[in-house]
Structure formats: C-alpha cells, structure tokens
C-alpha cells in the first residue's frame, strides 16, 4: 500500500506494513523470492542504522523467542541497555520492538515507520523485482528504533530460516541456533539437514556460535559450517549445561554451569525445553557481558514469557500456549500432566503447513473435550477438517466446532468448573486472541466486527 499521508498512529503504521508483500505468509510466493538485496538497499538508503549495533542473532525452529527474552533480561541485569526484536506479536504491533524490556510506545513506532516508508516506496517504484517486503520493512524499523535509542546490545530473532532472512544483513557479535526440526518445509527443505543449512546461514566468519541440543544430522551441519568459517562453537551439553533440580506449579529451579559459572536460579516457566532456552540465553549473555551470580539469578527470575505455557488463572486452571509444532505440542502435553484437575478442555486451531496430525496426537489424548476453531481466516485449517482428525485420533473425546475464535474461547472459559483445566494451543494467532480475551477486565469486552481483521501477517506460525 503506497502511503498518501504521514504515518502518525499505530493503526496507520500497521495498515502500511500489512499492505506490503509478505513472502513469509503467502505460500504461493516461492522461496526464491527471499533475497537479502532488498533489505540491503533499504538499509543503505537509511544510512545503515544496523552497522554499529552490537547484535546477538538468534535462529531456530523453536525456542528462539524465549531464548531472546531470557537473553534480554540477563543483559539488562548486567546493566546494559537492550533492544529486542521478535516476531510475531500476540496482541499489539509494539510487542515486536522492545527497548529496555518495554514495548516501544505506539507513537514512537509510528514515527519510525513514517521514516522508513518513503524509502520502501521509492525502491518499489524504481525496481519492483527488489521491492522491500513486509519483513524487510519491519526489520529496518527495528534497526532505526535501536539506533535512535543508542542501545548497548541488540537481541535479534530470525523471522524464518536464517540464510535469506531479512535480519541476516547484520554482522553480529554472537550467533545462536536453539533447535532444529521439520518446519516450513516448502521453503526451507524437506529434511532436518536441509533446514539446518538454512539456519546455519546466520553464522559469520570468526563469530562465536551458541548451539542447542540438535538432532545429530543437524548438529553435524551446523558444526561443519562453524568449522568452515572458523567460528568458535559452544554446545549445550558439552561446553555448558543445565539440570532441572526441582519443578512445581510455580516454575523450575535450575543448576546452570558454563565455564567458571556455577549457579542455581529459578525460572517461572515450565518444561525442560525452557530450561534449555534459559541455558542458551545464559551462554549468550556471558559471552556478551559480565554477569555476577546475583545478576544471573535476577535476570532469569525476572523473565516472563507470554503464551509459553502461561498460567492466566488457577481456579480453574486457564493456560495459554503458542505450541504449533509436534515437538512443542509434546512438551506442552508433558507439562500439563503436573496440573491437578477434574476435567480438561482444549481449545485448538491449526495453521496450514503444519503437521496437524502429529500436533493433535500429542495434545488430544487425555483431554475430555476439544473446541476446534479457526484463529486466522487465511492460514488456519478448516475447523471441520481438524475436528475429523481429532475424532480419528481419539474417538472417545467430545469435539465441538466453533469457527469464531473469540466465541470459542469465551464459551470454553464459561463452561469450566472450578476444578477444571482449560488449555488454548495450536496456533500463535489463537494464543494472541485468547490472551486478549482472557486478560480483559470486566466491562472491557470487545466486539468483533470482521473476522478478517483478526489476521496478522507473519510467517512464524
């Protein structure tokens, strides 16, 4: 969408950005359309605001967002000013851009989009083949914001893949690859090794790499790439490690070891995968800042992860999670076994391109009732198709279809008994909708005018 006036409000900024081609979301656009040349041309016109940023660049199939937020909190505990760019957002566009642990103000974001937009328009008009995309523009906006704020460190999450992701124009001080599994196969490849090659594309010559617990074939690809580029490699389980000392309904107590660092700390999140993410974040932070044991504990304990097995209510239990892969669904299901309840109600939406049967096979067993909805009108699978999959997987489970996600969440919440548990999962889009509904105060109830307005362009779900 070519702008006709200045961008002054968050709504205007959103409208402009969502009017750009979104190659991450539009499945008909070939992966060959991904290219770093548009973002390079765009940042050049802006004066290359990313050039002097000290960046920790984080890629991965899962866990990169959580690792980014843990890293942000640890760096802030060391006294650093930190800019953080993550995607997608759950409720507001401002969530993607954080400075010192706080979402940027709507007017600040609008002003940054207003500065970037004329350059996007000029490049599109001069050479449509290299027109900056939705994610090119949002990445450039992040660079502008962090440059203006003169932050000490930037935590930068890859949007999709790595090698051709818009964020890969940076020259980072450190890279991190959290995990690798089969995802976005139509774009990244149909084997774990091929996907690993795309993720390893963020590795730069001589730049240290922090690596999570990867499948052997993926670890081999990343390790070989690091060797080729003479990039020091630090592996979870070899060069640093974490043990879960105890778990309860308040979170986990961890024992973390990394070189001379040997510390116990609590995190409020659940699941061994989050313990791994915390360890990865600590490995990143220790190689970017000086941290005392006290600041490590404070940084990890202060981290809050929205929509990552997030408990919004305890009587009844109401939990929102953004699990949308088989592995994340399995992790969620494992954690839920610890919560005492009488009955379990699952609200689910599955996005196209996901391994729906594998996700549902992890989520549905042991559930009493499932409400199937459609969180996003374009990307989400038909709820009747998802309901048929559930009935094939678990014939005894009660299933209902409520296409409108707002009605689905509200109806499920209102049907809960005080000893029941409700879990919303399967889609980042649905997690965002559910959080907005379930955290609203009395009298704040929203009216949905158009289901199309629920769409948030992003390739991460």
Structural class: alpha/beta
How many helices? 15
Radius of gyration: 21 Å
Q: How is the largest sheet built, in terms of strand order?
A: 4-3-2-5-1-6-7-8
Per DSSP E runs of 2 or more residues, the count of β-strands stands at 17
Mean pLDDT: 90
CATH topology of the largest domain: UDP-N-acetylmuramoyl-L-alanine:D-glutamate ligase
How far is the first residue's CA from the last residue's CA? Answer: 24 Å
Helix content: 25-40%
The level 1 CATH classification of the largest domain is: Alpha Beta
Instruction: State the domain count.
Output: 2
Q: Mind telling me which CATH architecture of the largest domain this is?
A: 3-Layer(aba) Sandwich
Main pleated sheet: 8 strands, mixed
Beta strand %: 15-25%
Shape: globular
| CATH H-level homologous superfamily name of the largest domain | Mur-like, catalytic domain
Provide the low-confidence segments as ranges.
442-461
Name some characteristics of this structure.
461 residues; alpha/beta; UDP-N-acetylmuramoyl-L-alanine:D-glutamate ligase; Protein-Tyrosine Phosphatase, Chain A; 8-stranded mixed β-sheet; 6-stranded mixed β-sheet; 17 strands; globular
């Amino acid at each position: 969408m070519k702008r006709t006036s200045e961008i002054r409000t968050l709504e205007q900024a959103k409208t402009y950005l969502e009017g750009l081609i979104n190659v991450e979301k539009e499945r008909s656009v070939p992966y060959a359309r991904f290219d770093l040349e548009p973002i390079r041309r765009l940042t050049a016109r802006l004066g290359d605001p990313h050039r002097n940023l000290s960046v920790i660049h984080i890629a991965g199939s899962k866990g990169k967002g959580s690792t980014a937020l843990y890293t942000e909190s640890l760096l802030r505990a060391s006294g650093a000013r930190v800019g953080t760019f993550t995607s997608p957002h759950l409720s507001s566009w401002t969530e993607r851009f954080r400075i010192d642990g706080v979402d940027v103000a709507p007017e600040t974001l609008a002003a940054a989009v207003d500065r970037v937009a004329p350059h996007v328009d000029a490049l599109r008009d001069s050479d449509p083949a290299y027109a900056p995309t939705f994610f090119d523009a949002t990445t450039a906006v992040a660079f502008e914001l962090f440059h203006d704020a003169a932050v000490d460190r930037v935590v930068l999450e890859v949007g999709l893949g790595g090698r051709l992701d818009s964020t890969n124009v940076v020259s980072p001080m450190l890279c991190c690859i959290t995990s690798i599994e089969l995802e976005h196969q139509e774009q990244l490849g149909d084997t774990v090794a091929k996907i690993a090659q795309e993720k390893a594309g963020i590795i730069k010559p001589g730049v240290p790499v922090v690596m999570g617990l990867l499948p052997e074939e993926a670890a081999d690809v990343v390790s070989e790439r690091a060797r080729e580029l003479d990039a020091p490699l630090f592996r979870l389980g070899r060069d640093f490690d974490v043990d879960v000392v105890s778990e309860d309904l308040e979170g986990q107590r961890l024992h973390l070891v990394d070189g001379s660092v040997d510390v116990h700390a609590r995190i409020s999140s659940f699941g061994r995968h989050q313990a791994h993410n915390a360890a990865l974040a600590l490995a990143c932070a220790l190689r970017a800042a000086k941290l005392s044991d006290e600041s490590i504990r404070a940084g990890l304990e202060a981290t809050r992860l929205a929509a990552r097995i997030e408990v919004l209510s305890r009587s009844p239990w109401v939990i929102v999670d953004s699990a949308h892969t088989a592995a994340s669904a399995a992790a969620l299901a494992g954690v839920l076994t610890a919560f005492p309840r009488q009955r379990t109600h699952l609200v689910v939406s599955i996005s196209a391109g996901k391994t729906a049967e594998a996700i549902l096979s992890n989520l549905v067993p042991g559930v009493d009732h499932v409400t199937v909805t459609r969180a996003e009108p374009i990307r989400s699978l038909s709820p009747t198709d998802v309901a048929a999959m559930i009935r094939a997987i678990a014939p005894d489970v009660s299933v209902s279809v409520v296409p409108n996600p707002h009605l689905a969440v509200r109806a499920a919440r209102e049907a809960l008994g005080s000893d029941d548990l409700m879990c919303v999962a399967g889609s980042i889009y649905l997690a965002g909708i559910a959080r907005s509904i379930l955290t609203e105060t009395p009298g704040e109830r929203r009216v949905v005018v158009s289901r199309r307005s629920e769409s948030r362009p992003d390739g991460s779900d």
